[in-house]
Amino acid sequence: MIATRLVSLALALFGCLAAGCITTGNPAGRFKNRSWRVVTSPNFVIYTDGSPQIAEERLRALERFRTFCQAAALIETSDAGLPLRLIAPRRIGDYRALAARRGVAGYFRQTRYGPVAVFSLDDRGYIDALQVTLHEYVHHLMHRRGGLPAPLWYHEGMAEYLSAVEFEPSGHLVVGGQLPLRSAALDHGRWVDSAALFLAPQDVSLKQLYPQSWLLVHYLMSEHRDGLKTYLRAFRMRPTAEKFEDSFGFPLSALHDRLRAFWDRRQLKAMRFLLPDLPIETRVEPLARNERDYLLAHMAVGRLDVNGLRAMLADLRQVGLPHLALAEHLYDIGRRREALALVDQILGRRPDDARPLLLKAHILLQPGPAGELAPEAPTKQALDLALRANRKDPDSVEAFKLIAIAGLRLPTFGAQNVRFALVNALTLAPYRDDVLLLWARYLATHEAAAEARTAAELLVSRTTSPRMRAAASALLDELDPAVGAGPRD
């Protein structure tokens, strides 16, 4: 029987750090003798080797900021479902040594196991750790919009705009205030042409992107809020000067002068909200060493090749949970036989851990070299593994997804069970394109063509993945051959 409980704070550490800046040495060495803790609140989890008191303060601030975001509805979404997990090395130097992205103080990622943000727990120099934390949470909310595409300047500018906060002793929260670092950059002339920011933000340097995007969102929220909503609905990953003028009522060529004039007036409008004084419970627990080592092994993925990862794990006395990071990496780079052999060894020691169960199910369900589906026997085995993982972690989107994939291939499993798994996966992760595509395919094969068409059209409109867009378009062509193939807007 498929479990249906939606939210738990299981102590699972997820593979989220896929590339980075360490090129030599063992990245786990600097943490070898440190104790890590897991600090939880109702909607967040922090893994850190820093002060548990600071971590608890950070979670309380996040919970209060979340209350504001839900009440203000500036981003039309909800973060109900999986908690946001935060990996926060204590020192900024440790974060920089392990970070998957250069030149930024934190980053957000959606992994196959759920949303993760990474940053340093402590302030250092010009780094305001709380502001970085809230910035990454805003990225999480944007991702929860259902995958709806939005321009890079909006993602970064809105995250900067909302994370400029001040918690007042009176219980008020002031949002949208000054950011001294961004103001200094603008005052010292780090400007790029605003039309370029709209049309090709990926070509703008980070030193220009962050301050000017922050100012641009301030300007549009202050003077063109309705136009901004119109523009975001029309965006669909293809910015044009025509879409800009239709949305805002003036030509894109005039934006730069208007933005400079807005900055010269220094009329940034902050919002002030009174937050309810609700008790926020937190819990601090030690993180087991093998969980810590699993996390650190994942941090090395992308810096070390397979041989480097093997060497990093060589001092462990036996194959265990930390080796799962290597097995997942082998699977991701196409070395499935090696991944399967290693995950079988891990399951020999951890037969009830949902993570290796799910990885083995993934491997068994993979199509063959010519795209042929896995035979019935391994598909049944994969289904059993996914069901076992679901019983261990009832909130695993991956478990529900793999149950649905296997169930669609096994008529004896039953259409209602497949539907139940997909409904749970969509409830937990409505933004997951792969889950929405599965849902559309399920509907198409169960005489619900209209509903399948609606789901596929939503996926075409929102996805940023060419592969997902092509798959959804192909499904639409199957549902309505008269439309024919070709690009869909």
Task: Report what the structure shows.
- With 489 residues, the chain is an alpha+beta fold.
- The protein has a domain at 29-274: Neutral Protease, domain 2 (Orthogonal Bundle).
- Helix content is 53%, strand content 8%.
- It has 21 helices and 9 strands.
- It has helices at 52-72, 92-98, 129-143, 152-163, 180-187, 194-199, 206-223, 225-235, 241-248, 255-265, 289-300, 306-313, 323-332, 336-349, 354-365, 376-392, 397-409, 415-428, 433-444, 449-462, 466-479; strands spanning 37-40, 44-48, 84-88, 106-111, 114-119, 165-167, 172-175, 271-274, 283-286.
- The strands form 2 sheets. The chain has a 6-stranded mixed β-sheet with strand order 4-5-3-2-1-9. Strands 6-7-8 form a 3-stranded antiparallel β-sheet.
- A hairpin with a 2-residue loop joins strand 4 and strand 5 (114-119).
- Helix 11 runs parallel beside helix 13 and helix 15 (354-365) runs parallel beside helix 17 (397-409).
- The longest helix is centred in the first third of the chain and has 21 residues, at 52-72.
- The radius of gyration is 24 Å and the shape is globular.
